[in-house]
Specification:
Elements lengths: L6 E4 L3 H13 L3 E5 L13 E3 L3 H11 L3 H8 E7 L9 E6 L1 H13 L4 E5 L2 E8 L5 H6 L35 H9 L2 E8 L4 E3 L2 E4 L8 E4 L2 E4 L11 H6 L6 E7 L2 E3 L9 E3 L23 E5 L2 H8 L23 H7 L7 E6 L6 E5 L7 H9 L9 E3 L2 E7 L14 E2 L1 E3 L9 H19 L13 H12 L23 H12 L4 H23 L1 E2 L1 H10 L9 E2 H5 L6 H7 L1 H10 L3 H12 L1 H18 L17 H10 L4 H5 L6 H11 L2
Parallel strand pairs: 1-2, 1-10, 2-6, 8-21, 10-22
Antiparallel strand pairs: 3-5, 4-5, 7-8, 8-9, 11-12, 11-20, 13-20, 14-18, 14-19, 15-16, 16-17, 17-18, 23-24
């Protein structure tokens, strides 16, 4: 066993698993430090992957060579493509998973990944050295002892920094003024990690993915307990040592609903919600298959009587009585939040979701709560179908530390400490998918930093992952961040169907996509191009297709047209055309073009005008991304900028004018001033 690693990943959640897997597969000797090896990538909240915009992120993770999509396919119990009634840019895959198998599959994957080692323990301290000092490996080669390498306030680093108890807004951010002065004089580098057991590991990079565990505090009515989630201890020490060297930190809050016993649920009272008749899958790899024997979910509704019972506990709600100071997610509110925000609604829709094939545990999506357990219990029993309900555990809220992400570079490396990367909920995001995407990019870039290579930074017109990271680093967060299609200005380019076309060549180039997988991609790409070309070149006579067009509610042809033009019509698809055009069927059969390639070709044809327009706009705006701003530029010296712009630019320190233009508070007039200075 060795105590020296290239990269140490702290936390075995969705971000940590992707980070560790990527770094190790790229060739870095990697240690994954987790508090419980039986809960790798645990689904602490809903047992599902994907959804609106989130599903696009998972397909991008897979296209780059990440693992989430593949593991989802292998553990899915239901699959649905959401928003199929809308345009292709809105189609979003979502899968219910067997949460126990999901975690087991991740553990099996990690335990069998070369270069990856696991240590079960809690990290309590990060170890630093001056950035200009030689690394521990270099010093060891020269015969020097590095166990006492200097870091600020080493003796105090086990202390925990607690939030203040004043107004919630005052608790949002905190930092150590003395440490801020220290950070101004010298940059630090990471040199290792110390654990609760007293083990000291040395390394050259750390990826911190602690999720909701940093000083985590769980709330259920008046009861509260330390913890990262039900049944797991909180992590102490990391926040304190980072605050002491100049990091800002704050508190956020999330929650989860009660878990229900299926044996006590009257399912016949609910409307079932089935998976797709012809389910697809997340991974582009041919090694996974669509889910079989799908399990249904169910629609459940609250009533005014249920609402009255819940409101009776509002005075004991830690969310409303000032106990909880952390900022909660706007787009995943608790049931008590819904009742207060939408006081005029008589009912709220809930979703009853299975947690696996071999368990009776069900998840009640939409009923997250931190009300006293007896209030939750009484209210649930008033829902039709839950009259005899037994609950395994009540819902609860959890507060935890996060670090405002404007303290990061786009590589997810921190600006204060060389070699220290943050990913996941520690950056103020919410959701498995957002966390996994950050973990993948942090793992890739930690490895590349050690190799002296440029970081991989995805642009906003290249991936939802690029939108996610740019939003975090440039705009920061004032509430838990989740991805939506509306956040992406180029969403027609960033569809779930073309994630491999956009990102697999990059995944192959950096070393995460195998030769076999890339050959499969190249074959698909060739099939798509040949099918589009066939449609563009093939003429169809009016008589060949008149009856078909009438059957789909489309005007018959008056003269022959190219197949490409016919496909531009609504309700006309390759699948249905193949049945009436023998030459199309023969072409598809002769080249063995599968359904995935056919769908991609069809979307490229139908949305050609929209796609080309967005590409034109993206290229036009990319000019701003190529105009760089010197890293040490003094924005306060530019009196022509507004005071707010000078303050925001000095704090965030954008690398390009494009990034500067997206900072809240920087006006178009300020951007023009910067263009005059740096771009014209």
């Amino acid at each position: 066993m060795t105590l020296d690693y290239d990269i140490i990943v702290i936390g075995g959640g969705h971000a940590g698993c992707e980070a560790a897997s990527a770094a190790a597969r790229l060739g870095s000797r990697t240690l994954l430090l987790t508090m419980d090896m039986t809960k790798m990538a645990a689904m602490s909240c809903n047992p599902a992957v994907g959804g609106v915009a989130k599903g696009q992120i998972v397909r991008e993770i897979d296209a780059l060579g990440g693992e989430m999509g593949r593991i989802t396919d292998r553990t899915a119990v239901q699959f649905r493509m959401l928003n199929m009634s809308k345009g292709a840019a809105m189609w979003s895959p979502r899968a219910q998973c067997d949460k126990t198998r999901f975690s087991e599959e991740w553990r099996h994957t990690l335990e069998n990944t070369p270069n990856l080692y696991i240590w079960q323990d809690a990290a309590t301290e990060l170890l630093f050295a001056k950035a200009d000092e030689a690394s521990s490996a270099d010093l060891e080669e020269k015969g020097h002892n590095t166990s006492e390498a200097s870091e600020p306030h080493a003796a105090e680093s086990q202390k925990t920094v607690r939030p203040t108890t004043g107004h919630p807004e005052e608790n949002t951010l905190r930092s150590d003024p003395a440490a801020e002065r220290l950070s101004e004089t010298s940059r630090l580098r990471i040199r290792g990690v110390r654990t609760r057991m007293g083990v000291e590991f040395s390394c050259r990079a750390v990826v911190l993915t602690a999720g909701t565990f940093l000083d985590g505090m769980m709330h259920c009515g008046a009861a509260h307990a330390e913890g990262g989630r039900a049944g797991d201890a909180a992590s102490h020490g990391i926040t304190g040592c980072l605050v002491r060297i100049g990091f800002e930190t704050g508190r956020m809050k999330t929650g989860t609903p009660a878990r229900l016993d299926a044996r006590t649920i009257h399912f016949e009272e609910f409307e079932p919600q089935y998976g797709d008749e012809k389910p697809s899958k997340f991974s582009f790899s041919p090694e996974t298959e669509p889910v079989k024997d799908q399990m249904p979910c169910y629609l459940v509704y609250t009533t005014p009587e249920v609402h009255a019972i819940l409101r009776s506990g509002f005075d004991r709600s830690p969310l409303f009585n000032g106990t909880i100071h952390g900022i909660g997610p706007r787009y995943c509110p608790s049931i008590e939040d819904k009742l207060r925000t939408f006081a005029d609604k008589d009912q709220h829709q809930l979703f009853l979701e299975p947690e696996g094939r071999s368990t009776n545990e069900y998840y009640l999506n939409g009923f997250s709560s931190s009300l006293p357990w007896e209030v939750q219990w009484e209210a649930l029993h008033k829902i039709r179908g839950f009259e005899d309900l037994h609950i395994y555990r009540p819902g609860y809220a959890i507060e935890y530390d996060y670090f405002p992400p404007i303290q990061l570079e786009h590589s997810l490396e921190t600006k204060l400490v060389s070699g220290l990367f943050f990913a996941g909920q520690v950056n103020g995001t919410t959701g498995y998918e957002e966390a996994a995407a950050q973990g993948l990019m942090a793992g890739i870039n930690a490895h590349r930093k050690l190799k002296g290579e440029e970081p991989i930074v995805l642009k906003r017109d290249e991936a939802y992952i690029g939108v996610l990271i740019d939003d975090l680093v440039t705009k920061g967060v004032d509430e838990p961040y989740r991805m939506f299609t509306s956040r992406a200005e180029y969403r027609i380019l960033l569809r779930q169907d073309n994630a491999d076309m956009r990102l697999t060549p990059l995944g192959y180039k950096i070393g995460l996509i195998s030769e076999k997988r890339y050959a499969h991609f190249e074959q698909k790409k060739s099939n798509v191009e040949s099918l589009v070309a066939f449609a563009r070149e093939t003429s169809v006579k009016a008589a060949e297709i008149s009856d078909y067009l009438k059957s789909v509610g489309s005007e018959p042809l008056t003269q022959g047209r190219k197949l490409h033009d016919i496909l531009m019509r609504n309700n006309v698809t390759f699948e249905s055309l193949e049945k009436v055009l023998p030459k199309l069927h023969r072409f598809i059969e002769s080249r063995r073009i599968d359904a995935e390639a056919i769908e991609e070709a069809e979307i490229q044809i139908k949305y050609k005008g929209y796609i080309e327009r967005e590409k034109f706009i993206a290229e036009k705006l990319r000019r701003l991304e190529n105009i760089r701003i010197p890293g040490d530029f003094d924005f306060f010296s530019m009196n022509s900028l507004t005071i707010e712009a000078r303050q925001k630019l000095s704090r965030i320190r954008p690398k390009t004018i494009g990034q500067a233009s997206r900072i809240p508070g920087v006006s178009p007039a300020d951007v023009n001033v910067l263009l005059i200075k740096f771009g014209r």
